[in-house]
C-alpha cells in the first residue's frame, strides 16, 4: 500500500481509539462504572459495536487503555515541569514534587481507582517517577543542596510515599505545605 494510505489508516485508527477512550471516560464519570456498556460507548463514539470490538474486547480494557494514556500524560507533564522550573536542582525538585502532589490530590472514584490503579503500567510509571526524582536528588546532593547520608533512591521513595498523603488533604494550600515539609526532610544535616 502507498505510504500516504497507511498513514491515513493509522491516523484514523488513532482517532477512533482516542474517541473511544474519551467517550468511555465521560460515560463512566457521568453514569458510574456499572452502567457503562459497549453499546453505550459505541453510540457515544459514533461507531458500530462490531467496529468497537475490533479495537477492544470489553469496557475494562478500554478503561485500562484510557488510564495508561492518562498516566503517560501525567509523566509528560512532570517532565515538562522539571524542564521549565529553572536551573537549580532544588527548584526543579520542588516543582516536580508539587506537581506530583497536586496530581495525587485530584479526587478519584473509589471503584474506578481500585480497578485502574493496578497492573504493569502503574508499576512502570512509579518506577519511572522514582528514577526521575532520584536523579534530581542525586544532582542536588552533589551540589550540597540535599542530604548525603541517605541514598537518593531511598529519599525519592520517601518523597513519593509522603506526597501520596496529598490525596486526603482538604486544599491545594495544604498540599503545598506538605511539599514544604517533605523538602525540609531533604536538607543536609549540620
Core attributes:
single chain; 190 residues; mainly alpha; Arc Repressor Mutant, subunit A; Tetracycline Repressor, domain 2; 2 domains; 9 helices
Pattern of helices and strands: HHHHHHHHH
**CATH level 4 superfamily of the largest domain:** Tetracycline Repressor, domain 2
DSSP E strands, number? 0
Query: Which structural class is indicated by helix and strand composition?
Result: mainly alpha
User: Per CATH, which architecture of the largest domain?
Assistant: Orthogonal Bundle
What's the number of structural domains? 2
CATH topology of the largest domain: Tetracycline Repressor, domain 2
Q: Which word captures the global form?
A: elongated
Number of helices: 9
What distance lies between the first and last C-alpha atoms, to the nearest angstrom? 68 Å
Strand content: under 5%
As a whole number of angstroms, the C-alpha radius of gyration is 20 Å
CATH class of the largest domain: Mainly Alpha
The main β sheet shows up as: none
**Which residues form runs of ≥5 with pLDDT under 50?**
none
What is the mean predicted local confidence, pLDDT?
Answer: 90
The percent of residues in helical segments reads over 70%
Amino acid at each position: 500500500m502507498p505510504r500516504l494510505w497507511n498513514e491515513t489508516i493509522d491516523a484514523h485508527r488513532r482517532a477512533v481509539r482516542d474517541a473511544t477512550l474519551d467517550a468511555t471516560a465521560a460515560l463512566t464519570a457521568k453514569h458510574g462504572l456499572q452502567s457503562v456498556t459497549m453499546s453505550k460507548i459505541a453510540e457515544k463514539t459514533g461507531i458500530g459495536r462490531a467496529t468497537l470490538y475490533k479495537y477492544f474486547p470489553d469496557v475494562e480494557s478500554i478503561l485500562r487503555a484510557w488510564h495508561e494514556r492518562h498516566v503517560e500524560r501525567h509523566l509528560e507533564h512532570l517532565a515538562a515541569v522539571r524542564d521549565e522550573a529553572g536551573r537549580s536542582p532544588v527548584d526543579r525538585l520542588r516543582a516536580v514534587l508539587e506537581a506530583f502532589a497536586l496530581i495525587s490530590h485530584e479526587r478519584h472514584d473509589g471503584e474506578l481507582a481500585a480497578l485502574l490503579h493496578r497492573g504493569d503500567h502503574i508499576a512502570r510509571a512509579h518506577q519511572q517517577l522514582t528514577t526521575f526524582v532520584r536523579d534530581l536528588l542525586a544532582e542536588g546532593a552533589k551540589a550540597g543542596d540535599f542530604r548525603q547520608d541517605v541514598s537518593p533512591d531511598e529519599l525519592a521513595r520517601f518523597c513519593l510515599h509522603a506526597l501520596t498523603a496529598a490525596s486526603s488533604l482538604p486544599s491545594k494550600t495544604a498540599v503545598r505545605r506538605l511539599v514544604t515539609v517533605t523538602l525540609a526532610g531533604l536538607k543536609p544535616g549540620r
